[in-house]
Amino acid sequence: MYLFCRVGWNEHKQTTRIEPEKNTSLDGLYKSKSIYCTQCEAQGFRKITYFIDRPDVTAKYQTTIHADETTCPVLLSNGNLIKSGKEANGRHFAVWKDPFSKPCYLFALVAGDLQHIEQSYQTQSRRDVTLRIYVEPHNIKKCDWAMQSLKQAFEWDEKRFGLEYDLDLFNIVAVDDFNAGAMENKSLNIFNSKYILADNDTATDTDYHNIQGVVAHEYLYVIIVSFLSNAFIQFIIIIFFYLLEGLTVYRDQEFSSDYGPRSVQRIDDVIRLQGTQFKEDGGPMAHPVRPQSYIEINNFYTTTVYEKGAEVVRMIETIIGRDKFTSGLQLYLQRHDGQACTVEQFIYAMEDASGVNLRPMFSWYSQSGTPEVTVKTEFDANNKCFTLHLQQVDLFFFFFLNLFDL
């Protein structure tokens, strides 16, 4: 592998030799059966080549892939295909260029014997985007629902938030042995087949619903991260997870609500929250949505960061209203295009768009545990007025009193 780095007027060439066939960690570039693929989140790119493997370090990538044409007829990477051709000894090459800067965890490469289906989507600005889903040959007839879900995600994000995809090509690859559920690499999403393949003979209603939701989640994440760069240092790393993942889960829940019964979707989301996140918040692994530090980044993929983070975003939308929330998100992306940003800046954008003081929301990002609320009710029969009083119990305050009494 050759890596060219240009810094100012200087150019650096670095040659790295790796053996994907022996990479059993399934991070970085590895071979799974006959297919080469990558998994660079959270810190897999450093297993491909030397690099400053942090999302606040962004770069533009042009990737040239050489391979045997018989065993690897399909060569994919991020961005747009700008050149391809045949070489000597039965080999061929492909050159991919992504014109937009991105952190290295969103780099992707796939090579293998794959087939694809293809459709086109016209954006709100009348630009045609080619959509392709690549699968292993025996799965080619099970991609139609995933393609429909992808087009729905494109259309929904344009109508709901005014956000439009910025490249000419969007690829999805689904392989049976991909080590993660799905990965939102820029313009080249990689999925486990479970979240792409469906037909009436093998899939249940739940399978169809999950495919629609996961395809939307990965696409909606790509759109947000296209605007923002996030720092991966000890404190700022939390920004990447709690803000982007919480915001993306909220957005994919809203997508599923608009494409199905909203009440049913909300019940499902709350059941999942109570069944997993409440237990996490009430146990020894409880942590805030924004922890102050970390030891192992892979431990951050929790229901607190994802589901509870989404509920905090939902509370903001409930307080200021749907239209002002949309305006706030657009203002946030406009202000911080290409920047490393924090939840404070997200809240400030929502305040400026709505005129509502949202500073109390910061506590939701710093406190662990499920809040306890006391409820009192009053009913005025003469005026037919029912009053509901809600007050949160300060767990730390009562803990302090108990210690004092002892």
Automatic annotation (TrEMBL):
Cofactor(s) annotated in UniProt: Zn(2+)
Domain of life from the UniProt record: Eukaryota
Residues passing through the membrane, by range: 219-244
Keywords (A to Z) from UniProt: Aminopeptidase, Hydrolase, Membrane, Metal-binding, Metalloprotease, Protease, Transmembrane, Transmembrane helix, Zinc
InterPro entries assigned: Aminopeptidase_N-like_N (IPR045357), Aminopeptidase_N-like_N_sf (IPR042097), Peptidase_M1_dom (IPR014782), Peptidase_M1_pepN (IPR012779), Peptidase_M4/M1_CTD_sf (IPR027268)
Aminopeptidase N-like N-terminal domain residues: 23-106
GO biological process: proteolysis
One GO MF term attached to the UniProt entry: zinc ion binding
Residue intervals of the Peptidase M1 membrane alanine aminopeptidase domain: 145-363
Protein family: Belongs to the peptidase M1 family.
Official protein name in the record: Aminopeptidase N
